[in-house]
Amino acid sequence: MSSTAFNRLRGLFSKSPSPIITTIKANRAAEIRAPISSKDKKTLSLVKKFKETTDNPRFRRYHHYYEATVLRLAREQHFSAIRDILEHQKKYPDIMDQKFAVRLICLYGKAKMADDAQKLFDELPSLNCERTVVSFNALLGACVNSKNFNKVTELFKELPEKLSIEPDIVSYNTVVKALCDVGSVDSASVVMNEMESSNIQPDVVTFNTLLDAFYKNNRIEEAEKLWCLMEKKNVLANVRTYNSRLRGLVADNRVSDAAELIEEMGKKGVKPDNYSFNALMKGFVDVGNLEEAKVWYKKMMRNGCGPDRATFGMLIPFACDKDDFDYAFELCNDAVKAKQSVYNSVVQRVADGLVERSKNNEAQKLMKMAKLK
């Protein structure tokens, strides 16, 4: 090449950049120089440290560390950071183990990142991990956790035939839950019928999901028919099944039937929990029967079920409404002993009621307890 031609080419690459290019470079330089907030620094540090720690095979077996980190980042909406640490896991041989891959899919679900969960599921064959009904169920569950309910039904219709996967009871139950969560209870019932045509019998999880949906939608008659079907199929009800029915009976103003149902639970070896008693006591609160609410509060205590914040949040204002400030004071005492918080406004209402009735000592004790909480 002649020296003249060489100089001409060199000139092309040594010319001053155009204003547009200069502007772009300046903007990029400004981005690089832009200060990183202390919050972002902490996130970057967390991600870096987590990725370094996962180099240890033993650490990769600690599920709770993964979950705690992902949930923390999700709360702070650092979704790119979650993607960064979970994508990083693909470099390890563990990814060929279905259990490890399923954990990652589930973590995406807990972070409400359904698209990333599906992306990982689609990539499993290229990562030498077989896709089975287990990973398929994990994907469906991730979509439910992400509130992407339409995606659940879409995947359920499309993937089993495409991937030669036979849906199991978990698959069907996940679809039933997704449909109930969007209010399509009738469609969920159809899915339960389809289960039986596929020689899969509905279990207590299936019935719990449907019963809860029917009762919540005030479709009491249909829920009762479903309860009878469950008994006919010899599916044993658990405490969650009973709690759904209790809430339904209370909503239907059948409080006495709800009380009988709790007695039935004991006879059938199903121990009522605090949700059971709270549901029944709410029924008595709704009908204005403080004396019965007191009776069942005592039974709750004898049953070994510790009253919770919902219990006190319901009964203390009700006792005040009924002008029974002695009982309200007693409940406040129980709340302090149980280390359950009560709204300051409620405590103040009880104290004011005691003072109005010349029970200043009790009011002072109450305010002292409130300060010591």
From TrEMBL:
Name assigned to this protein: Pentacotripeptide-repeat region of PRORP domain-containing protein
Keywords: Repeat
PPR repeats: 168-202, 203-237, 238-272, 273-307
One Pfam family of this chain: PPR
Single GO biological process annotation from the record: chloroplast-nucleus signaling pathway
Coiled-coil ranges per UniProt: none
GO cellular component: chloroplast
Family: Belongs to the PPR family. P subfamily.
Organism in which the protein naturally occurs: Coffea canephora (Robusta coffee)
Family matches, as InterPro entries: PPR_rpt, TPR-like_helical_dom_sf
